[in-house]
Amino acid sequence: MSRTGFRVFFSRLLDLVFRNRRETRLEAEVQDHLDALTEQYVAAGLSDSDARLAARRAFGGVDQIKVLHREQRGLPFVDWLTFDVRSAFRSLSRERAFSAGLVVVLGLGLAVNTTIFTIVNGMTWRSLPVERGDQIVQIGSQRLQPRAEGMYTSFADFRDWRAASRTLVDLAAYGSATMNLGDETRPADRLAGNFVSSNAFALLGVQPLIGRDFSVTDDTPAAPPVAILGHHIWTARYAADPAIVGLAIRINGTATTVVGVMPEGFQFPVRADVWRPLGQMPGLEVANRSQRRFDIVGRLEDGATVDDARAEMAAVAAALAAQHPETNADIGVRTMPFTHAFVAPPPEAREPLVMMIAAAIVLIIACANGASLLMARAARRAREMAMRATLGASRFRIVRQLLVEALLVATAAAGVGLVLSVFAVRMFARETLDMNLPFWIAFEFDARVFAYMAVACLGTAVAFGLVPAWQLSKTDAHEVLKEGGRSAIGGRRARRWTGALLVSELALTLTLLGGATILVRSSAALGSQDRVLDLDDLFTAQIGLPGGRYDTPEKRHALHAQLQEQLDAASLIPSATLSSVRPFVESNTRELRIEGQPNPPDRPPTVQTVGTGEHYFQTLGIRMLRGRELGPTDGAPGREAAVVNERFAQVHFPNADPIGRRIRLTEPRGDAVPTEHWFTIVGVSPSIRQRTMAHVAPLAYIPLDLHLGPTLGVVARAGGDLQRTSAALREQVRAVDPDVAAYNISSLRRLSELSRWPARMVSFVLGLFAVIASLLSIAGLYGLTAYGVAQRTAEIGLRLALGARRPQIAWLFLRSTLVHAIIGLAIGLAGVLGVGKLIGGLLVETSGADAMVLVGIVAALVAITVTACFVPARRAVRLDPVAALRHE
Question: 10 Å Cβ neighbour count for 292?
Fold first, then answer.
C-alpha cells in the first residue's frame, strides 16, 4: 500500500471510529449547501417556502447524497456489516423463543466439541512446559526387523549420537528407576526416580528452585552420591524446609546428599520425584553397546524440524550399523516430539479419535437440526424476502443478511457452549486427579482451544445457515406476493432439503447410539469379570525392594518370609498375602510348554503368570473349581506346583482334566535363560482379570519364591477401616527394613475402577453424546412436525370438514416422517457396523456387530420417532374444524 493509500485508509478508519462526529459534520455540510441555495433563490425573488423547495430540487436526494458520501469517506464493508447486524438483531428478537431454541441446540453441539477438543489438546498436543518446549524431541533406538519396534538405547550409542548430531543443540540421556527414599524419622517412600545426565536440566532450560543443578563432576561413578528432589516430595515429606539442601537422606539404602529441589510441577520425564546423576547408575561402568537401558532427549537447533533430525539420526544409525554390525545390525532410530513418545495423538491413539468423531457427529446433528428449523421458518419469511427482492435487493445481499443472522446465533451458541464446556472440563479434570497422568498434561483453555472455537463457530454458522439462506434467496417474488406467501412452504426443493437433513440427523444419531451401546456393553462386561471377587473389604499395596539390597534369591526368600510373618502378626490386618503383582493391573507373560503336547517352534503359546504367597486364595475369597490351592511346600525342589484359571483349562485342555498335567513356563525368548521347572497343575480357579483393559486370559499361579522380582504385591483384608489398616501395613513393612517402602495403597474396588477407567470414560462420553444427539433429534422432529401442523391448520380443518377421520389426519404427518426414519435406519445400521470396526480394539467380550445392539437401534429409532411426533400429531387430530378453517 502506497503512502497516499495508507493515509486514505487511516482517514476512513478514523471516520468510522468517530461515526457520530462524522454524521454531525455531514449533516451540517448538507444543511450549509441547502441554505446557500435557498439564499440564492430568495435573492432571485422567490418566497422562503418556494426557495427551500427549489433548493432541494436543485441539490438532489439528500439521503442518496449522504449514502454516496459515506461510501467515499467510510469503509463500505463495515457499514454494510453494521447494518446487517442491526437487522439480524431485530429479526431474531421478534422470535425470541425460536432464537433461544436454536442457540441451545447449537450450544450443546459446540459445548461437546469444545470439551473434547480441550481434553484431547491437553493430553496429546501440548508441548513440554519448558523453555521452547516444542523443540524438545525424544530419540530412541528402534529394531527394524522383523518389524519396527521401539527399544531403549545403549550408553555407547548415546555418546556417538551426541557427537555426530548437527540438527540438535544437545542430547541428554535418562533412565527411569524406582527409588526408596528413607530417613530415621518416618517410613520409607517408594518414588518414581530417574538417573539423568548432568546436562539434562540445562538442555530443558529448567533450573532448581533452591540449591544447584548436577555438575559434570557429579556424573561419575566415583563421585559422592547426590540427588535432586521434586517439589511435591519436598513439601509432602519435608514440609518445604529449605534446610533440606545439604542434608543426607537414604536412597535405596545409600546415604545421599540433597543438592537441590526442582520447581513446582516439574516431574520430567513423566511423574518423577527424585533425580540422581546418570554416572551413578549401578552397572553403568561395565555396560557394553548391546545393553540398552536409556531414553534420549534432545533440543532442536533454531530452524530445524523433527523431520530434519529424523533424517540425520537415521544416517547416523546406518553408519553405526556398518561400524558395529555385531550389536547394531537392523537397529535404527526413531525421532518424535517428546510428548508423543508417551501419549500418542490422533489418529494413532484410538480413544481420543473415537471421542472426536463422536463430538463431530453431535455438532453435525445440531447443525442439521438448526438447518431443518430454519428451512421450516423460511416459509414465514418468504413474503419478507420477496419484498426485499422487489425493492432491489440482490440475491447476494439476501444471502449475506441471512448468514449474518446465522453467525449471530452461532456466536451466542458459542458463549453457551463455552460456559458448559468449562464446567465439563473441570469435572473431567477432577476425575483424573489420581490417574498419574504425565506432568505436562493440563486441561486448559489456551490459544489453540479458542482458535478451534472460533473456527467451529464460523463453520457452524455456515453449516446450518447456508442452505436455508440459499433456498430462501431463490424465492420467486412474483409468485409469493401473488399467493400471499403461502406457496413457499410447499416448494418441492425445500421439502427435499428438509427431508435430506432429517435423514442425515437420524442416521448420525443411530450411529452414535450404536457405538455408545457397544462400548457400554463392553465396559459392563469388563466390570462383570471383576465381580468374581468380593471387593468391599480388600485393599492392595506394592512393596518396592531397594536395588542391590535384595539381589539374590536367598535374600528375597528371607524377606518374603519376614514380611509374611509380620503381616500375620498384625492385629489390625485380619488376613494378608504377598504376590508378585496386584489383580486387575499387572501380570507377567511367559511362554508355555505342555508336557506331551507338541509346541509350534515359531510362535509358542503364552500365558500370564502370577507368583502367590501363603493364603492368597483365602484372602481373596476364591474357592477352587477343581483341585486344591497352593500349599507352603509346593515350591520346594521336585514339588513345583501351579494353579491355573478356568480360561487356561478351556483353551489348553478343552476336553480333558488339567489336574495332574505338567507345564513349563519360560521367559520370552531373548530376555532371560528359560527356567527348568516343570509345574504340576494341582487346581483350577475362577478366572480373574489381571491386566488393564483386557480380556480374561489363560493364567497360571505359581509359588512366589519361584517368581522373584524387584517389587511385591500385597492383598489384605481391611477389617472395616482402610486408613488404619494402611498405616498398620506401612509400620509392619518398616519393622522388617526401614528402607523398604509400601506404596500405591488402594482399595481393590478402586483399583478395579482405575483399571477400567479408559473403557468407562469412553463409554460414558459416548453414552452422554448419544443422549444429547437423541434429544436433539427429538427436538428437531418435534419442531418440524409442529411447524407443519401450524402451517397446514386450514388444510386440516378442510379435511375434517369434508369427512376425514382423525387417524387419517395423524397418518398425514406420520407418513413422511416414517419414510425418512426408514431411510435413516438403513444408513444408521451401516454406520453402526462401521463404528464397530473402528472401535474393535477397545472392546472386551463384545462384538462390533452385536445383534442386541442392532435390535436396540431399531427400538431407539421407533422411540425417537414416536416421541417426537406424538404431541404435534395429537394436536392436529384435536383441532376444531371451524376454528381451523378460520386460521390464516
Answer: 20
